[in-house]
């Protein structure tokens, strides 16, 4: 395996870990692709990936324009290019050991764009149970993300404590808010690495107080045979990898079952 020792223990204990790409060249290719699509959309010639992406707010300051840009980029980056497969390749050393060899990949990865001061950060939420608890989320920054420019998570224990506190006293908003403030961990993820987190963790973001834009992807992988969430699996996911035996079994089911 490439990418060094797997932080499995950390992933299982806390529900997340930050890992460097096992194929940095593949990640660089993906970022170049998205960078050039983004510059085409804003109508500005590409100069330097880091400063162009960090400075996107100079062309897309925020509000509805930022939403339109995010949606246009989400669509355009996936036209004729399999972003999910490329993310999987870049981090395969880690991901295949988490989800196995028969892999479903989210069809269209999400883009998040947070210009400085944008008043619409990501509200606190969990992806599962709407998504399957057998999914791993790959949160992939295209620029260095730290402090308020990044995202926070509650680890497994803090997530369980927050759920318990809410069940015990659903009306106690200020108690819940202080638990959140005490127990959330702000992620530091440099470009070149990704945050891998379990779909059932609470997570969210705050207003980006850095003078730079945040642009990141998030996408999901799960084993083809793992239990589903509530989303229609074949609308949301497509098959990325199967073993020869799985292909034979699927063919058998099609032809003989
Ligand atoms: O990047 C963000 O602010 C939120 C991302 C998110 O909710 C996710 O990756 O599931
Ligand atoms: Fe989420």
Q: What do you see in this structure?
A:
- The chain is an alpha+beta fold and 257 residues long.
- The protein has a single domain, classed as Jelly Rolls, CATH 2.60.120.620.
- Helices cover 40% and strands 19% of the residues.
- It is built from 10 helices and 10 strands.
- The strands form 2 sheets. Strands 1, 2, 3, 4, 7, 9 and 10 form a 7-stranded antiparallel β-sheet that branches. A 3-stranded antiparallel β-sheet has the order 6-5-8, with no helix packed on it.
- Bound molecules: 2-oxoglutaric acid and fe (ii) ion.
- Residues 125, 127, 203 line the site of fe (ii) ion.
- Fe (ii) ion binds at residues 125, 127, 203.
Give the SSE map.
Elements: H1 8-14, E1 16-20, H2 24-42, H3 49-54, H4 63-77, H5 83-90, H6 92-99, E2 103-106, E3 110-114, E4 135-141, E5 152-153, H7 156-168, H8 173-183, E6 185-186, E7 193-198, E8 203-204, E9 214-223, H9 233-236, E10 237-241, H10 244-256
Helix pairs in contact: 2-4, 2-5, 5-6, 7-8
Query: How many helices in DSSP terms?
Result: 10
How far apart are the first and last residues' alpha carbons, in Å?
Answer: 38 Å
**What characterizes the major β-sheet?**
7 strands, antiparallel
Query: What ligands are attached or bound here?
Result: 2-oxoglutaric acid, fe (ii) ion
Helix/strand-derived class? alpha+beta
CATH superfamily descriptor: q2cbj1_9rhob like domain
Give unreliable regions as ranges: none
Number of domains: 1
Gross geometry: globular
> What portion of residues is helical?
40-55%
What integer is the average pLDDT?
94
- The radius of gyration is 19 Å
User: What proportion of the residues form beta strands (DSSP E)?
Assistant: 15-25%
Oligomeric grouping of the chains: single chain
Number of strands: 10
CATH level-1 class: Mainly Beta
The CATH architecture is: Sandwich
What is the succession of H and E elements?
Answer: HEHHHHHEEEEHHEEEEHEH
Here the CATH topology equals Jelly Rolls
């Amino acid at each position: 395996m490439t990418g060094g020792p797997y932080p499995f223990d950390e992933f299982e204990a806390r529900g997340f870990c930050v890992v460097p790409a096992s194929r940095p060249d593949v990640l660089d290719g993906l970022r170049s692709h998205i960078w050039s699509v983004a510059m085409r959309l804003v109508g500005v010639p590409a100069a330097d990936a880091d400063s162009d992406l960090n400075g996107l707010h100079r062309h897309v300051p925020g509000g509805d324009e930022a939403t339109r840009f995010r949606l246009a980029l989400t669509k355009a980056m996936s036209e004729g290019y399999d972003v999910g497969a490329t993310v999987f390749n870049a981090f395969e050393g880690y991901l295949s050991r988490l989800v196995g060899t028969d892999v479903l990949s989210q069809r269209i990865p999400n883009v998040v764009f947070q210009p400085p001061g944008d008043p619409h950060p990501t509200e606190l939420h969990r992806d599962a149970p709407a998504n399957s608890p057998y999914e791993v989320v790959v949160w992939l920054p295209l620029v260095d993300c730290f402090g308020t420019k990044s995202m926070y998570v509650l680890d497994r224990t803090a997530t369980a404590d927050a759920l318990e506190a809410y069940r015990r006293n659903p009306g106690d908003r200020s108690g819940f808010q202080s638990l959140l403030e005490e127990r959330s961990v702000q992620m530091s993820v440099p470009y070149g690495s990704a945050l891998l987190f379990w779909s059932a963790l609470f997570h969210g973001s705050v207003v980006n107080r850095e003078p730079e834009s945040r642009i990141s992807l998030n996408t999901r992988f799960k084993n083809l045979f793992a239990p589903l969430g509530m989303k229609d699996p074949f609308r949301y996911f497509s098959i990325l990898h199967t073993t020869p035996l799985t292909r034979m079994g699927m063919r058998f089911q099609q032809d003989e079952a």
